[in-house]
Amino acid sequence: MFACLALYLALHSISSPAQAQQQSMPPPGTQLPSAPQPVSGTIRGTVTDTDGAIIAGASITLHETQPPSESRSESESESKDRQTTSAPDGRFTFPNVPLGPFKLTVTAPRFSPLQTSGTLHSGEAYEVPEISLPAASLAIDMQVTASQQDIAQAQIEIEEKQRIFGAIPNFYVSYAPHPVPLTPKQKFELAWKTLIDPITFTATGFIAGIEQAQDDFGGYGQGSQGYAKRYAAAYGDAIVGTAIGNAILPSILKQDPRYFYKGTGTTRSRALYAMANSVICKGDNGRWQPNYSAIIGGAAAGGISNFYYPSADRNGTTLTLENTALGIAGSAIQNLFQEFLVRKLTPHLPEYKTQSGN
CA-based angle 283:285:287, to the nearest 5? Predict the structure, then answer.
């Protein structure tokens, strides 16, 4: 009896584990549940300056690294960049960002760039720690100023090659859509190049010849001596007028002596613009203002000429003022030619887009 009971218990203990194992196994054909797949996340943050003020319009670049796949080894993982800008409240968001390490580069005008990094986990809304852009250093501002001077010098070099019919100097007109102001040194350089140009000497000789033929300024007499005096007086007018009206006063009063070609708008608006430029000009600050340099310069040149013209031909105050008014009218006519005709007669000009909003 006891032997039979022991044999039964022994057999039962052997079969129970097998039965338990069979019970834990799923039925044949049953699909096992897959492991949870990682999902993408979101990266967001706020851009400010070091004082905590919001910076809108900052450029944020996300450098994310694609993880290796079956067709790409770990050493061949790809880097992918995305870009956005900060909203008016300084906020930015990158949705659907793959998991793993990332880098952010933040830039904005007048601020030094900033880089930050982090690691994004599955389903995470990652809030980037404080992004405070420092102000650009003084060295960067100085470089911008130097660049402005370089641009102005490049524009002058183009203007010094502008010649009507390929010969007559046309240095004092700018066709550039966004001209930068000239430094005092550059204003004197442009005046000097005008005065020593061979065409200036030739034109002065032609004027002196006409004056001698008409016996103008009779106090100079005739013959070679009379011609030399007329030539010196005519060239003296050019020196005084150009130096005072285009270099000295523009440097002191911070005004630009050039005519800025408009080229757009109706014929009436362009004509009014050209005539107005006989009494107004652009200041070095880019704003329109009365053209004191040309007006005072013309009157000063007329007054100084009284020192070297024959006493019988010297102008009194009234005549000097009349000549100043005539000079303004002549400048208006000259500007009309510049606006509507001279550009067509000046070869080899750069292909500038015409200005607007002058």
Answer: 60
131 CB-near residues (< 8 Å, 6+ apart): 45, 46, 47, 48, 104, 106, 114, 116
Q: Which residues contact 144 (CB under 8 A, 6 or more apart)?
A: none
| Confidence (pTM) | 0.56
Question: Domain for residue 10, yes or no?
Answer: no
How many angstroms separate the Cα of 52 from the Cα of each of 55, 89, 91?
A: 9, 12, 13
Q: What contacts 213, CB < 8 A, 6 or more positions away?
A: none
The answer to whether residue 198 sits within a structural domain is yes
Rounded CA gap, 342 and 171, in Å?
12
Longest dimension (CA), the chain: 166
Instruction: Judge residue 100's burial from the number of C-beta atoms within 10 Å of its C-beta, 0-12 exposed, 13-18 middle, 19 or more buried.
Output: middle
Q: Tell whether 352 is covered by a domain.
A: no
Q: Supply φ then ψ for residue 67, to 5 degrees.
A: -65, 155
Q: Are residues 282 and 337 in the same domain?
A: yes
The whole domain housing 120 covers 41-67+77-133
For residues 220 and 331, state if they share a domain. yes
The residue type of 84 is: T
Task: Classify 227 as helix, strand or coil.
Answer: helix
Same domain, 340 and 232: yes
Q: Render each residue's pLDDT in the chain as its tens digit; 358 residues.
A: 444 444 444 444 444 444 444 444 555 555 555 555 557 889 999 999 988 899 999 999 998 765 555 545 544 445 578 999 999 889 999 998 888 898 999 999 989 999 998 888 888 899 998 889 998 864 444 444 456 888 888 888 899 899 999 999 999 999 988 889 999 999 999 999 999 999 999 999 999 999 999 998 888 899 999 999 999 999 998 999 899 999 999 999 999 999 999 999 999 999 999 999 999 999 999 899 999 999 998 888 778 877 888 877 776 676 577 677 878 888 999 999 999 999 999 998 876 655 444 4
